[in-house]
Amino acid sequence: MTDNSPVNNQLQTQASDISLFNNCSKFIIGQSTINVVAGNQYNTQSGGNDNAEWIKAPNPFENFNAAYPKIIEGTGTWLLDHESFQKWKSNLNGSLLWLQGKAGSGKTFLCTNVINDLRKNCTVFFYYFDTRDKVKADYQGFISSLLCQVAKEAIEKGNASAQIELEKLYNSSKKGDFLVAENIEATLVNLVMTMGTTYVIVDAMDECAEEYQDKLLALVDKFLTKLKNCYMLVSSRPHIDMAHKEVGIISLDNQLSDVGIGSDIKKYVDTKLQKQRAWSPELKAEIKDTLVNSANGQ
Q1: pLDDT at 184 over 80
Q2: Which residues form the NACHT domain (predicted)?
């Protein structure tokens, strides 16, 4: 006896539809490729653009992971508590904060501390210029690294507008083989524009190759002019010509004679001296005074 009930008819229709896929290995719907794995199982792959691996870029986590373990516990907290930093973080005092200091003043460790603080509750992207690695001193390496980080964030959050921008760049660059700075810049700005409040930390701007310094400063200005949701903290030696009108400055050289770095130096020296158990308290005190006074230029 044939079962002509509505339920059975619906089941037969679905079975017929599914059987269409049994002999297929691949078919395309819109921009997505459907790959049949076995029988009626399948998965999707969106145009090769479902991850950011096609964006070749330096990895800033190498620098972060190298710096973070070297931070002495309790140091750098003065910056996180600093009035200018708190206003910048709360978006109350301009969108650019510039950490100035001479070579060896601890800018990289302070930036690392800031990154670690922000990434707990905020969207933060970062980069370390580094003359020890030619690629990390290159302007295109910088913007490619930021783009890679932003792209991963957008993909993870399912940001449809950002993924459209990435698809355009992926196709125009021949799957990432012909990425040029102008297109990377444009896509980077467009992607960040689709996000909420975003923080960008750039350490050692003065270590960017000299021929690209003007481009770097122009991009910083473009970010802060076009992106009202973007807040940047940069570090460098004081000689960089930062023309952006709304720049807040924290000078590490001034902090040496204030709380700030002066207290960091004392904590660092104390930590090192504690390991010298054979030294007398008097010798340790003398060494500490000499090192701290030397750091303060006395």
Answers
A1: yes
A2: 95-238
Run of H or E including 15: helix 6-19
**Cβ neighbours, 10 Å, residue 74:** 13
Percent of the chain with pLDDT over 70: 67
Q: Which two tokens stand for residue 142?
A: 């910088």
* β-strand pairing of 123-128 with 230-236: unpaired
Q: How many other C-beta atoms can be found within 10 angstroms of the C-beta atom of residue 81? A: 11
pLDDT, tens digit, 9 for 90 and up, residues 205-216:
999 999 999 999
Rounded to whole angstroms, how far apart are CA atoms 298 and 283? 19
**Which DSSP category does 244 fall into?**
-
Pairing mode, strands 32-38 and 26-29: antiparallel
pTM: 0.73
DSSP assignment of 57-97, as one string?
A: ---HHHHHHHHGGGSPTTTTHHHHH-HHHHHHHTT-S-SEE
Half-sphere exposure of 23 (CA within 13 A, CB side): 2
User: Distances in Å between the alpha carbon of 170 and those of 14, 147, 184, 229, 239?
Assistant: 37, 12, 10, 25, 38
Contacts of 62-68 with CB under 8 Å at 24 or more apart are: 63/108, 63/128, 63/130, 63/136, 63/203, 64/112, 64/115, 64/126, 64/128, 67/108, 67/109, 67/112, 67/128, 68/112, 68/116
Q: Hey, where are the domains in the chain? A: 6-46, 60-255, 261-295
Q: How far is the CA of 140 from the CAs of 34, 58, 212, 215, in angstroms? A: 35, 10, 9, 10
Cβ pair 79, 203 in contact under 8 A? no
Q: Of 98, 96, 91, nearest to 222 (Cα)? A: 96
